[in-house]
Design brief:
The protein is an all-alpha fold. It is about 50% helix and about 0% strand. The chain starts with a helix and ends in a 27-residue tail after the last helix. The protein binds protoporphyrin IX containing FE and 2-acetamido-2-deoxy-beta-D-glucopyranose (4 copies). The site of one 2-acetamido-2-deoxy-beta-D-glucopyranose (NAG) has 3 residues, from helix 7.
C-alpha cells in the first residue's frame, strides 16, 4: 500500500513536470538578474565573434525539436550515453557551446543551482536576435534540464539541408507548428553561415541529376561555385543571406531572387504552399518579426515530459548525491 501511494506521488510529481508552467519573469525572486546576465554574456560574445550569436540562436531549434526544450543537446557524450553533439545535423556544425558555458558560470556565481541550461538556451536565442537588430520579446521560463540525451532521436528528427518544403511542412506539423510558423522560423537564417558540405549536392548533383539546382539564380550560382568548387574543403562556410550579421528580412528577398543558400531555404519559394509567406515577409519586415516571435514562443513551449533537474554544468548531469527536482 505504502509503495503504491509512493508510486502515485511520484507519478503525480512527474505529471507536474510534463505540464510545467512556463511564464515570463520566472526567476524574478530567485535570480532577479538572470536575464540581464545572459544578455551581457551574449553582448560580449557578439563583440568577440559576431557569428557566435547566430550559432547560439540555432541551439533553440536543435534543442526544442529533440524531446522538448530541455538542454539535452548540451550534454557531452559519456561512456554509457551517445549524446546529440555528434548527431548528423550537429557534428562539425553546431558551435559556440562555450557561450552557454560562460552564461552558466556567471549564473552559478549569482544564484547557484537556480537557472536551468534549457532556459539559458531560450534566453540566449532571444538575445541573439535582439542584438542582431531583430525584434525583442519576453520569454516564458521555468524549464528543467534533461537527465539524458539521444543521438538516435536527433538523427531521426532533425531535417537535412536537402529537405524540400513539403517534407518540412510535415515535420513542423508534428510539433504543432503551422506553415506560417515554418516560413517565419526559417527566417532565422537571416543570420549566420553554413558549410559547403551542406550545399555540394545542390551545386553539382541536385536530386541525382548530375546538374545544379535550376532554382539557383545563375549569377549567385557562379558565386557559390567559386566558394565551393568540387574539391573544396567542405568546412569552408558561406553566408546564409546577403546581410549575415543583421537580423532582417533580407533572407526572404534573397529567396525571391533565387539566392537562397540551402536547398531547404530556396524550396520555400518554389513550393506553392510556402511561397506566399516568403513573398509576404520579403515585403513586410514587421509582419516577419511578429510571426517570428510567435513561432519562437511556440517552439519554446515544446516540453519533454520527462523528469529533470537544474544542471550545475550544462555539459553533464548532476552527480548522484543531488536530489532530482520533481516539480
Ligand atoms: C526549416 C528547417 C531547417 C533546416 C533544414 C536547417 C538547416 C540548417 C543548416 C544545414 C545549417 C548550416 C549547417 C552547416 O552547414 O554547418 C543551418 C544553420 C543555421 N540555422 Fe537552420 N535549419 C532549419 C531551421 C532553423 C530554425 C527553425 C532555426 C532557429 C530558429 C535555425 C537557425 C539556424 C542558424 C542561426 C544557423 C546559422 C548558424 C551559424 O552560423 O553557426 N534553423 N541550418
Ligand atoms: C520532397 O521530399 C520528400 C522526401 O524526401 C519526397 O518524398 C517528395 O517526393 C519530395 N517532394 C517534392 C515535391 O519534390
Ligand atoms: C499538438 O497538439 C495536440 C492537440 O492539442 C497535442 O495532443 C499534442 O501533444 C501536441 N504535440 C506537441 C508535439 O506538442
Ligand atoms: C549523383 O547522384 C546520383 C544519385 O544519388 C548518383 O548515382 C551519381 O553517382 C551522382 N553523381 C555524381 C557525379 O556524384
Ligand atoms: C571538418 O572539420 C572537422 C574537424 O574540425 C573534420 O573532422 C572533418 O572531417 C571536416 N569535414 C569535412 C567535410 O571536411
Amino acid at each position: 500500500m505504502a509503495t503504491i501511494s509512493l508510486l502515485l506521488i511520484f507519478l503525480l510529481h512527474a505529471a507536474t513536470v510534463i505540464s510545467a508552467d512556463l511564464r515570463p519573469g520566472f526567476y524574478h525572486s530567485t535570480c532577479p538578474d538572470a536575464e540581464s546576465i545572459v544578455r551581457g554574456v551574449m553582448r560580449k560574445a557578439l563583440i568577440r565573434e559576431p557569428r557566435s550569436v547566430a550559432s547560439v540562436m540555432r541551439f533553440q531549434f536543435h534543442d526544442c525539436f529533440v524531446n522538448g526544450c530541455d538542454g539535452s543537446m548540451l550534454l557531452d557524450d559519456t561512456p554509457t550515453m551517445l549524446g546529440e553533439k555528434l548527431a548528423l545535423s550537429n557534428i562539425n556544425s553546431l558551435r559556440s557551446y562555450e557561450v552557454i558555458d560562460e552564461a552558466k558560470e556567471e549564473l552559478e556565481k549569482a544564484c547557484p543551482g537556480v537557472v536551468s541550461c534549457a532556459d539559458i538556451v531560450i534566453m540566449a536565442a532571444r538575445d541573439a536576435v535582439a542584438l542582431a537588430g531583430g525584434p525583442d520579446w519576453k520569454v516564458r521560463l521555468g524549464r528543467l534540464d534533461s537527465l539524458t540525451a539521444s543521438q538516435e532521436d536527433s538523427n531521426n528528427i532533425m531535417p537535412s539541408p536537402r529537405a524540400n518544403a513539403s517534407a518540412l511542412v510535415d515535420l513542423f506539423r508534428k510539433f504543432n507548428l503551422s506553415i506560417r510558423d515554418l516560413v517565419a522560423l526559417s527566417g532565422s537564417h537571416s543570420i549566420g553561415q553554413a558549410r559547403c558540405f551542406s550545399i555540394m549536392f545542390r551545386l553539382y548533383n541536385q536530386s541525382g541529376s548530375g546538374k545544379p539546382d535550376p532554382a539557383i539564380e545563375p549569377g549567385f550560382r557562379e558565386k557559390l561555385d567559386k566558394l565551393c568548387p568540387l574539391n573544396v574543403d567542405q568546412n569552408v562556410t558561406g553566408d546564409l543571406d546577403a546581410t549575415p550579421c543583421v537580423f532582417d528580412n533580407q533572407y526572404f528577398k534573397d529567396l525571391v531572387a533565387g539566392r537562397g543558400f540551402l536547398n531547404s531555404d530556396q524550396t520555400l519559394f518554389t513550393f506553392p504552399k510556402t511561397r506566399g509567406y516568403v513573398e509576404l515577409y520579403s515585403r513586410d519586415q514587421s509582419q516577419f518579426f511578429k510571426d517570428f516571435v510567435n513561432g519562437m514562443l511556440k517552439m519554446g513551449d515544446l516540453q519533454s515530459g520527462h523528469c529533470g533537474e537544474v544542471r550545475k554544468n550544462c555539459r553533464v548531469v548532476n552527480g548522484h548525491s543531488d536530489h532530482l527536482l520533481l516539480e
